[in-house]
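Methods — Computational structure assignment.
A single polypeptide chain was analysed. Its primary sequence is given first, followed by the predicted tertiary structure written as structure tokens.
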Amino acid sequence: MMFREFSRFWLAVLALMLVAGCTSSPRAPAPVETRGTSPKVSASASVPAAEAVRVMPGAENAGKPGYHTVQRGDTLTRIALDHGQTWRDLVSWNNLDNANLIEVGQVLRVAPPGAKVEASGVVVQPIGGTAPVATPAKPAPAPTTAPSANDDGLGFAWPASGSVIAGFDEAKNKGLDIAGNAGDPVLAAADGQVVYAGAGLRGYGNLIILKHNNTFLTAYAHNQALLVKEDQKVRKGQKIAEMGKTDADRVKLHFEIRRQGKPVDPAKYLSAR
């Protein structure tokens, strides 16, 4: 009798345990660890608006001849110099509200609207831009030795009288470095118009850039004093600055000739001394 009651007791306990198990909350599935694969996103998931990719101004022209994609460290002045243009032309062609505000990834027009541009970026039929400066009333004396490169008849003259202390190297030195003393005159190498006068281009110090025609620019760097202003027309041999050592390790003039924005060896264009 006692054994039968004992068995009933344990059967009742077992039944209660089964009922409790059936009414408890279901366990959450174990987490799945993905190895070597990226997690999949549901097709219904949407990207928050703040994370949407921003389309930069001019992006539709990226990679096309006559356009430049802004890189980190670029300034409008450097972009203009590298493409043989003036920064003011770039402002006009790109409808920029502020010349000091350009963004990495922004695509800028660097050739005149309507100009024919080769795949290499060379403008072969420039339209607009700064007009060539008028021929001087008194012709410059002919050089003792004709320069070896075509200079469009400009007849580039030496911008300073000192000795050359560093020659042209397209990778390391984009022009000639000419020695001198602080205050020595820096002369315009040819007739032209001042398209930049300031110290906004890193590595050049107080800088003057002259535009001579739609092909050639010249640059004069490290001056201690600038004697001309932007938009001013100058004549070949005119004193435009005083030699100095701004942003340089010694007093010197760094002189560049740029053809279609590309640095070329000034020694091939300058007359023999």
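Note: The domain at 164-268 is CATH 2.70.70.10 (Glucose Permease (Domain IIA)).
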